[in-house]
Prior knowledge:
The chain is mostly helical. It is built from 12 helices and no strands.
Amino acid sequence: xxxxxxxxxxxxxxxxxxxxxxxxxxxxxxxxxxxxxxxxxxxxxxxxxxxxxxxxxxxxxxxxxxxxxxxxxxxxxxxxxxxxxxxxxxxxxxxxxxxxxxxxxxxxxxxxxxxxxxxxxxxxxxxxxxxxxxxxxxxxxxxxxxxxxxxxxxxxxxxxxxxxxxxxxxxxxxxxxxxxxxxxxxxxxxxxxxxxxxxxxxxxxxxxxxxxxxxxxxxxxxxxxxxxxxxxxxxxxxxxxxxxxxxxxxxxxxxxxxxxxxxxxxxxxxxxxxxxxxxxxxxxxxxxxxxxxxxxxxxxxxxxxxxxxxxxxxxxxxxxxxxxx
Length: 325
């Protein structure tokens, strides 16, 4: 009889859990992503006008979910790569005696996993703010590089500047007119947006969970907190963390969208940002902020809450299986 998987080797599970949460959030929130892309593509477009244009056209409901397939592929596999990479990095940092001695790890490496501390709702290793920032940024940048071609196709699908009929047709058209470079349009702005966003998100998320857990532990027993309060604490923390991180990184998102939609007009990130500010004002760097903040708040909170709950339940079963061996 095969041995049950152990907590020490959960890579496949983290990949699958990330894949599932990414597909779920992408499918549910695609209309918000599409509206954000349309708002950011032109200075004269407002959210209300964009929504009216879409809903007044034929197949309005279907149009709101235009680009769902590339979005699901990108977000699903992107989340899978991100969560599995982030877990591997966090586990490595957590178990490093050198980093523990320098204060990068916020709890002793000899302590049980982070589900054990009485004042935390987390199912993941607890690290310092610097370690959370660094591991989050590296994991997101790595996943973003791998998923960049499908990201470009996704953005152009959502825009009304292109009329791609299929993923294969989109890929062929991009390669024909722009070469391989076209599949990585806006990667600089994307990396500068995603790496700080992911790093800041993990920092804000872990800090918020810690503070909310402390408040909860003052009025609840440990068992009650872990079984009844971890999900709402994680979800609220995800919403707050996404809001802060999104507001800080939105200018890079606006520039990234322009570079991917209009590579002929904008040569690089610096030139694009200067031209946008010169022609449209600083406000153009915050186009779509409300939509992005709302979408990110819900998608990140949903993804992280489901992911942590899956990890918590799975590791509980693995621990029981290991103990019975």
